[in-house]
Design brief:
The chain is an alpha+beta fold. It contains six helices and nine strands; from the N terminus they run αβααββααββββββα. The two termini are about 30 Å apart.
Length: about 160
């Protein structure tokens, strides 16, 4: 999705991991059920993994945190057409409620006078992991947490 949304842009593997890229390749995730989807307008993607138990979910989430968050923040390695691009990556707690753990990662940059903004949410609810990424700078600040909250509520049976 990243490559189709931002053509000729590359990003470090740590940052891509926080956005759910190659998430399904984890052996622990393969033990559970994994669903991936893209919104009709392609502004959001979601990965929801239901693992055998909460310990496995914590382990997989732990593979992202703190290493991927730290590496992505320190050096996102964002390039456009092979040239480095200055990017700001901020990581913090997500505003979603009802999750055991929830973090947010935001990447902002300007490429050819166009804003690049990606906001990801990583949340754990019991044995479930939720990764939602908003790709559209005009809607992602609002829609990424809202979509994450929708998944949390549905998983918790509060929908």
């Amino acid at each position: 999705m990243f490559e189709s949304e931002y053509t000729d842009v590359t990003l470090s593997s740590a940052c891509l991991a926080l956005l759910g890229v190659d998430f399904e390749s984890s052996a622990e995730v393969q033990e559970g059920t994994l669903q991936f989807g893209t919104s009709v307008d392609r502004t959001l993607t979601a990965v929801v993994a239901s693992l055998p138990d909460a310990d496995k979910a914590s382990y997989v989430r732990g593979m992202l945190d703190p290493y991927a968050f730290e590496v992505c923040t320190d050096d996102p390695a964002l390039t456009y057409d092979g040239e480095p691009v200055d990017a700001q990556v901020t990581v913090g707690e997500s505003d979603v409620t009802g999750a055991d753990e929830a973090d947010s990662v935001r990447l902002d940059a300007t490429i050819d006078d166009s804003a690049v903004s990606v906001i990801g949410q990583v949340a754990q609810v019991d044995n479930n992991l939720i990764l939602v990424v908003g790709w559209d700078p005009s809607t992602n600040e609002r829609n990424s947490p809202l979509a994450t909250q929708m998944f949390i509520d549905a998983i918790a049976g509060e929908s």
